[in-house]
Specification:
Blueprint lengths: L1 H14 L6 H8 L13 H35 L9 H11 L3
Helix pairs in contact: 1-2, 1-3, 3-4
Length: about 100
């Protein structure tokens, strides 16, 4: 079951929580979707794992956005931004990276 969890987590990290479906997880594991039920008691268990991973991804994204913003402000306050780099453009690029 550890392999299935790691694979599910990788799917969420790569493509977002909406990408984690029974079929996508089975495809990534190289098995047919019904075979997942050999590892999980029922569809509800698979969906529960997907929900937990989605919540984890959302919580991590919120913390990552905060860390990005905090780092940018600290660099700006202390005049540590490299010359020639547009501060506004750097902010816009960073914020777009977190867009769903």
């Amino acid at each position: 079951m550890a392999e299935q969890r790691l694979t599910a987590r990788a799917l969420v990290e790569e493509a977002g929580p909406e990408a984690l479906t029974t079929r996508s997880l089975a495809d990534r594991l190289g098995i047919k979707a019904p075979s997942l039920y050999k590892h999980f008691s029922d569809k509800a268990a698979v969906e529960l794992i997907a929900q937990h991973l989605a919540a984890l991804a959302d919580a991590y994204r919120a913390r990552a956005v905060w860390a990005f913003a905090h780092g940018m402000v600290i660099l700006e306050i202390h005049g540590r931004f490299p010359g020639g780099v547009g501060l506004g453009e750097a902010w816009e690029t960073g914020v777009r990276a977190f867009a769903p």
